[in-house]
Amino acid sequence: MATPIAHVVVAVALGNALNLPKVPLRLWLLGAACAVVPDVDVLGFWAGVPYDAWYGHRGLTHSLAFAGAVSLLIVATAFRGERWANHRHRLLAYFFTATASHAVLDAMTNGGLGVAFFLPFNTTRYFFPFRPIEVSPLSVPAFFTARGLEILWNELVWICLPALLLAVLILFARQRRAVGNSAATS
Predict the structure, then answer these.
(1) What is the 3-state secondary structure (H, E, C) of 117-157?
(2) How far apart are CA 5 and CA 154, in angstroms?
(3) What confidence tens digit (pLDDT) does each residue in 97-115 have?
(4) How many whole angstroms separate alpha carbon 141 and alpha carbon 15?
(5) What does pTM read for this prediction?
(6) For the residues 55-84, what does the mean pLDDT come to?
(7) pLDDT tens across 115-156, in order?
(8) Paired strand residues for 126
(9) Comparing C-alpha atoms, which of 126, 5, 138, 3 is closest to residue 64?
(10) What values do phi and psi take at 128, rounded to 5?
(11) What sign has the CA pseudo-torsion 1, 153, 14, 78?
(12) CA distances for 164 relative to 47, 78, 158, angstroms
């Protein structure tokens, strides 16, 4: 798995694509939570759940069905006011993508048993052919080692910098569109 830091960075970068008039703090916090919540399944290690079980690590909570359920739940509860009526489709897409991005990053790591993207319909676990992300340790003390620093550097190169580039490109495109729209109305 990638570190929680890397998952949150991706969710924040994706949030820039929303282009909402005023983005409340709760949106950013919920997006960050969506990006890390699939790893709640690591609790199964201590409860004796087998890794390859439905509820094992990278199982059901890493599936696209889970991402869909989480996004529906968040939008239905945290964005139910009339103010959000015209933005719900974008919010659903954002929270789905933020949650699903976790599984996508995990499928790009060099360790584990793969990701069960299609549970509960298919139990097959997948990796992507391109797997440059070093698998992260599950313990916090392991990050305070030379290996932990290697993993953080790897994520800076393969996750954080591309996410930052994505965010900058989105902001640039939005700014360019705004300039084009203001020139057209002048």
Answers:
(1) CCCCCCCCCECCCCCCECCCCCCCHHHHCHHHHHHHHHHHH
(2) 12
(3) 999 999 999 999 999 999 9
(4) 31
(5) 0.91
(6) 96
(7) 999 999 999 999 999 999 999 877 778 878 888 889 999 999
(8) 115
(9) 126
(10) -85, 155
(11) positive
(12) 37, 27, 11
Residue with tokens 């974008």: 90
Q: Would you say residue 184 has pLDDT above 80?
A: no
* C-beta atoms surrounding 95 within 10 Å: 29
| Helix (H) or strand (E) segment spanning residue 116 | none
Structure tokens at 157: 């190169």
Answer yes or no: are the C-beta atoms of 15 and 23 closer than 8 Å.
yes
Q: What is the DSSP string of 18-84?
A: G--SS--HHHHHHHHHHHHGGGGGGHHHHHT--TTSTTSTTSGGGSHHHHHHHHHHHHHHHS-SGGG
